[in-house]
């Protein structure tokens, strides 16, 4: 698919909002022993017969070039609908207005399916309230879209897994949205209290005993791989290397509930050298958002990376990079506590159909920083709502699934090692930048660009496109006015001055609140279907 820079901005940044209303409980489920595995790529189908056991539930994620989607079923019989998997928003909604999308998206929008409450024998409950939801970077109007939804309750299925009377939205009006969304983030104001403003999908799964705790893992995989995996209530040791690193979830930049963490360092690896910048304060607050394709960082965080890649602004808010840079064996690096997620240039640099011009995987924002698919696909992330933590490792793919079911408790997510070997080494050089980054003395000096010619002799496990024996040339344009703790130089950051306290992805003045009429969707507790999709 050939896409312009305008295409990159069209509806790719998504987010959460708050809905005022009465708590709704869901306490029933169908019964079915064990769980069922639907293949992800070549994963074999497996079945278990242990009744009422709480198993990991795996959903196939389909890489739709610019977003990751999964199929759900709503109603009885299930009406199959493809939805975007979004860790930047909290609600499930379906039925976008396909007539408002671009012509090249209309067929795809129609193919994603629609829900008709009148065709469900459950029966459906609703409509019982409405809300307007606006998505996008609050500092970039080009990214903003909206939907108006009415609320319903009906049966929700993930393959053979079913939960009853799940509340979700059905679109009445939408603007430039080609697919529905399954939000897996906490509500902006209610936070991880999954009962407010109503029981969200992950909370309902735990309430009905489908999973032991509110945990899911995300495996987006490389950009040229068409499928990934979403596992509810578990993790897959065959999809990461090194040990999972536990990182606390923090509030968003405006104090709202997000799946946000502290980003300790950002850096870049070119040839045999590596440079990382240490961050703190507003510059370190990043939201992990699978509903965003292009990551968004504040200028002083992003520009050293963009400069090192010789990226040039295109006039529309994005940065162009020569496509041959995709073939370099280096990476862009993001440090969280004791783990560094290294994004190979092949994943970080986006090819939009022009053989000469590609785009960097980051754009600039003045608001909430977001790590989107261009970064998340290089890591393995286990989100733990109950303990408000994210467990992170370098993504990999090494053999048959080795799924670990997550139980309950403070240490429910085990600090296990992946089956794909040791994680890549630690940084060889660390830069401490001023103004919002960790403080260290700065000095000005003229530093010439460094050009290195080298032969690739060893390929890291995290870069599937690396080839040994290839002679490469890389030029790193070093900047003045920054002192390296290890003797390197780079560009100093500007003093942080967050000009907008409106979080991206739909908060602030873009998170319009509409009333949700009080309704209680409840059924009696029964046995549960436990399914591994």
From TrEMBL:
Cystine residue pairs: 323-358
Transmembrane segments: 512-532
Composition bias type Low complexity, residue spans: 480-507
InterPro entries referenced in this protein's UniProt entry, alphabetically: Aspartic_peptidase_A1, Aspartic_peptidase_AS, PEPTIDASE_A1, Peptidase_aspartic_dom_sf
UniProt-recorded Gene Ontology molecular function terms: aspartic-type endopeptidase activity
Family statement: Belongs to the peptidase A1 family.
Name of this chain's protein: Candidapepsin-4
Protein species of origin: Cordyceps militaris (strain CM01) (Caterpillar fungus)
């Amino acid at each position: 698919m050939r896409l312009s820079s305008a295409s990159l901005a069209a509806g790719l940044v998504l987010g959460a909002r708050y809905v005022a209303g009465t708590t709704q409980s869901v306490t029933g489920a169908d019964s079915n022993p064990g769980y069922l595995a639907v293949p992800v790529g070549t994963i074999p189908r497996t079945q278990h017969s242990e009744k009422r056991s709480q198993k990991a539930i795996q959903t196939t994620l389909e890489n739709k070039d610019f977003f990751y989607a999964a199929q759900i079923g709503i109603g009885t019989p299930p009406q199959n609908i493809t939805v975007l998997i979004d860790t930047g928003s909290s609600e499930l909604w379906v039925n976008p207005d396909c007539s408002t999308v671009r012509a090249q998206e209309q067929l795809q929008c129609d193919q994603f399916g629609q829900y008709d409450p009148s065709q469900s024998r459950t029966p459906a409950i609703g409509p019982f309230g409405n809300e307007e939801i606006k998505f996008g970077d609050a500092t970039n109007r080009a990214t903003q879209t909206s939907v108006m939804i009415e609320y319903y309750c009906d049966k929700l299925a993930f393959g053979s897994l079913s939960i009853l009377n799940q509340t979700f939205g059905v679109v009445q009006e939408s603007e430039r949205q080609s697919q529905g969304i399954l939000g897996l983030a906490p509500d902006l104001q209610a936070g991880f209290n999954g009962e407010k403003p109503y029981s969200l999908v992950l909370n309902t799964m735990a309430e009905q005993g489908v999973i032991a705790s509110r945990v899911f893992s995300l495996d987006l995989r490389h950009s040229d791989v068409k499928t990934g995996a979403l596992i509810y209530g578990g993790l897959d040791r065959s999809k990461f290397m090194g040990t999972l690193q536990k990182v606390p979830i923090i509030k968003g930049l405006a104090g709202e509930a997000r799946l946000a963490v502290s980003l300790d360092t950002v850096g870049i690896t070119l040839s045999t050298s590596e440079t990382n910048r240490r961050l703190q304060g507003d510059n370190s607050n990043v939201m992990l958002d699978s509903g965003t394709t292009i990551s968004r960082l504040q200028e002083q965080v992003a520009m050293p990376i963009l400069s090192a890649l010789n990226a040039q602004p295109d006039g529309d808010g994005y940065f162009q990079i020569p496509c041959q840079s995709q073939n370099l064996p280096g990476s862009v690096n993001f440090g969280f506590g004791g783990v560094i997620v290294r994004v190979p240039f092949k994943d970080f640099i986006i090819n939009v159909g022009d053989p000469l011009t590609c785009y960097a995987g980051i754009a600039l924002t003045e608001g909430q920083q977001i790590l989107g698919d261009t970064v998340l696909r290089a890591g393995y992330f286990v989100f733990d709502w109950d303990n408000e933590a994210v467990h992170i490792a370098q993504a990999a793919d090494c053999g048959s699934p080795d799924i670990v079911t997550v139980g309950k408790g403070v240490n429910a997510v085990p600090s296990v090692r992946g089956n794909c070997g040791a994680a890549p080494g630690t940084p060889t050089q660390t830069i401490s930048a001023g103004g919002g980054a960790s403080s260290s003395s700065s000095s000005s000096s003229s530093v010439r660009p460094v050009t290195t010619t080298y032969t690739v002799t060893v390929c890291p496990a995290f870069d599937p496109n690396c080839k040994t024996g290839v002679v490469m040339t890389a030029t790193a344009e070093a900047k003045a006015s920054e002192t390296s703790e290890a003797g390197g130089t780079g560009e100093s950051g500007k003093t942080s001055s967050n000009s907008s306290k409106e979080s991206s992805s739909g908060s602030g003045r873009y998170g319009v609140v509409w009333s949700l009429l009080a309704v209680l969707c409840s059924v009696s507790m029964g046995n549960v279907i436990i399914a591994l999709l």
